[in-house]
Fold this sequence. Notes:
This protein has four helices and no strands. The chain has helices at residues 6-13, 16-28, 31-51, 63-122. It starts with 5 loop residues before the first helix and ends with a helix.
Amino acid sequence: MAITNWHTQHQQSLTAGQRGADALRNGMGSWPFIAAFIIAMVLWAAVNSIVLVNNSWDPYPYILLNLFLSMLAGLQGAILLISAKRQGAISSAMAMAKHDYDTNVAAKVEIDRLSSSANSIGK
Length: 123
């Protein structure tokens, strides 16, 4: 009988959407993402305010940028909720596995105790 690793089985059972949500969560929660985000905002403002003074596609107060940021926030919220839901399910499964393990250890101790007392009575 082959011994299987629960974590490996779980990773293989993930859908493409679940793997994508985890990858995006890990990317969005990183310093490189924050740095890239700040750079993109500064570039957007610089291009629209300085470089394209007369022909900017999104002049100050940057209504188009605000729309994009609102859509990004909505998507990030949904992605984070999907990933948090999965992490909650994993935590719950691990808590149940820990409870099962503790129950099995307690049962083994009790069986060993009963077995040793039965052996001492039989002698």
